[in-house]
Amino acid sequence: MNMDTDLSSYININPISSWRIFNNITYRKIETCEFKNFSKKVERLDKIEKQFVSMAQFGGPIAIITKRQGMTQNDIKYNITIMNLPLHEEKHKEFDRGTIVYVNWTVKEDLILVTEDGKYHLIDIFYHNNNNDESITLSESVSSISEARIFNAKSGSGLIALKRNHEGFIVVKNVYDPIIQTISIMNSDVRSNLTITAWCVIDHIDTTIAYACDNMIYTCNQSSSKKDQQQISGINDTIIKMVTSFDYQTIAVLKQNGDVLIGSKSLTHPFTLKFNGNNEKTRITDIAWCGNEAIIAIRSTSTTWYDLLILDSNKSKAITPTSREIITSDTLYYTTYVWLFPELDGVRILSGDTLQFFQRVPKELYNVLQVISEEPGAQLYNAYINYKYENQLSEMLLTRLKSSKYTSGFEEAVRQCTIAASNEIDPSVQKMLLKAALFGRSFLSLKLNPTPNIGTKRESPIKIQTNNTFSNIIMCLHLINNLQDKSISLPLTYKQFDCLGIQALINRLVRRNLHEFATKLTKFLNIPADEGENRILVQWAVQEINNPTNTNEESISEIIKSRLENVSGIPFIEIIGAAFLAKKTIVVRRLLDVKVTINDQVDILLTLGDKEEALQRALKSENTDLVLYVLMRIKADESLTDYMLRLKKLKSLPINLHLE
């Protein structure tokens, strides 16, 4: 065994090499994607009057929206560029339905644009044309919206818009099933001459909003009979931005002088100062949450230099001169403009041609890989590494795990290594942690195996739970690592994957036209065909029908039939319905004979106006009730004379019965 070679290979994949300590807290930054010529696009954008850049949660697509003036002052158009798609492709669209004031994404990855004329627009960026785009009116007043915010939950996406006159908010709890509601904020507690300078959503369940008027913070919601009943004094200078943490428990506030404060959403305690601007020229201009763990602040020192300050979210620990010096002396810096997109467990940073993911190192991973950690998982991991390189230290560490110091040494060590692997992003480090867990499981199996002469053999519940966790995490990591590939471009962490859910992930793959990968995923996860593979195949057929480049209807029919005809459980009636909506009647007729019930065949033919074919199929089925049903439908559309002539031409038994 060549120890030098093996040791050097271990050093090359040092699991903590990407870690970095900011203000005594450990973070890591991972580059997840590169965009060709993105920085050049940004340079051109700097010269345009208005621009929006927005990224969907869970590593979704990025929208760049640029405004261009038309021939007249009122002729405003926008170019939409969509990036971070499979194979790094780009999509382009145009928008000319109003002046945009807000851009974001829904949980279904539809682009949502809010225009100042009181409307929001849902743009299906994956669709081949604009037929799936929707426009919903929030207010009939012209130029009525000044700002908007979206809030996402598993149940859907909601939208809140601030009226231009600052008299209240317009609320839509579900943008796909809009019910328009309003929240009024003007009463005796707030002077009518005050302007809302910042606001945010602090509870999406009862739609509670926190808003600032100069240096005062108020709240309002739909359920409370008295509005603006809470306020906080002592915050000097104007508040210019408010953002909530991912779990909606904490508010971060940015003041005009560059101060950053945080506080509880209940507003019952004074806010804690996390950074003081000291009236410096280079003030903080923007803030965003990094999961629930920290606030990232952007400070622009020049047009070519941007500092990112990392502020912890500990509400009980205010900034001190020492901690301020530490924060300002150790920053992330960029030489091109920076956009921040908060995630469940971190923040995505877009700058130049790169997209990076920045997060606080998860506690479960930190406790195992930290050099001086005494956790059972760390002991097992180090024991495995030393065992791998034939170091006797391994035996000593294993002995410590067996000692009474740990109440459940090996069980806990295996669990910690397994969970740590799920929180790691680098596949090579994941592999090392899982091998350490597997190494520990070998001792766990020996310990838990019952002796041959003792009654009925029963497997330990601890072992069963450990085995299930280990197998599930290996399966999920295998899937997550495949999603990182540029052919898919869905950079998810394990926590994001768990929060998103399998069905939502399948929907995202299908919308990206990744049907083959989605089908393999359902088989890999043993998802029932009707919930997985068959649903995906139906979506594939519908996309083939709606694809504007597919103009040969005969060819479309043959492709769909050849691929799906022998697959059991495919609901062809859904595919036929999509073809009917797309006005591709040849596809409809060609698919009628493929696993479609005679009743559905007849209904579709009658809808197409093919009465003769519908009647002939009904007669061939020898179903008297069905024939009479078709005749009644024909009779309703024809004159009595034409109807009687049609009957005389037919000699079948059902017709004779009808004539009687």
From TrEMBL:
Transmembrane segments: none annotated. SUPFAM superfamilies: WD40 repeat-like (SSF50978). It holds the Pfam family Vps16_C. Residues 40-445 form the Vps16 N-terminal domain. It comes from the Eukaryota. Residues 572-644 form the Vps16 C-terminal domain. GO terms for cellular component: endosome; HOPS complex; lysosomal membrane. GO terms for biological process: endosomal transport; intracellular protein transport; vacuole fusion, non-autophagic. GO terms for molecular function: actin binding. Belongs to the VPS16 family. PANTHER family: VACUOLAR PROTEIN SORTING VPS16, VACUOLAR PROTEIN SORTING-ASSOCIATED PROTEIN 16 HOMOLOG. This is Vacuolar protein sorting-associated protein 16 homolog.
